[in-house]
Amino acid sequence: MLALQAAAYRPGCVTARSGRRLYVLVPAGDGEAGPARTLLASARSVPRDVVLAGAGPVAAGPAGLPASREAAELVVRVLRERAARLPAGEVRSAAAAYDEVVPEATVLRLLDRVEPLWGSLPGPVHAMVEHDRVHGSAYGDSVTAYLDASCDTGTAARRLNVHPNTLRYRLRRARELFGVDPADPAARLLAEIGLRLAARRSHRTGSP
């Protein structure tokens, strides 16, 4: 359906499929900044399925196409990570252009560089993640929710569907047991990095 919509979108559209991915090359008019924006909107209308669509920046010529495709793929990764933080019943189709997700895309690029090094740097976050894996505890999820909520206990507790006092207890124990203290800037940064990488690894393996 999306391939047909893309082919009919405007003359010169070229489509190619790779597994479950559909790539669309959209010709831009003179000075046109977002030739794919209307096409992106159609991705949200596909019934009974979740579609994530991303558009890279306009390439000045054929040599710029690989970079534009890479940017579009990065947008889809951003949308996938957003979806992974939602309850399954709330996940919906989504679309975005690269210039709309630059901060998140930049974080993903940085994490890609850090990931090969992270495993050789054991520390508090590693210990907490391993404890959760072995014992089925939820310290990592609790710290993640707290950080995602800009350290607002009430908001984080609602997202976790727990009482705020339960969340405060978990955060206190994470600090006592592992030294993961969101109040400390360095510890907070390491927790952000480590927990994002742990979530990425869990998503790849399908493990809890």
Automatic annotation (TrEMBL):
Record-annotated PucR C-terminal helix-turn-helix domain positions: 143-196
Instruction: State the source organism's domain of life.
Output: Bacteria
Annotated CdaR GGDEF-like domain ranges read 6-78
Family affiliation: Belongs to the CdaR family.
User: Could you tell me what this protein is called?
Assistant: PucR family transcriptional regulator
Q: Which organism is it from?
A: Streptomyces sanglieri
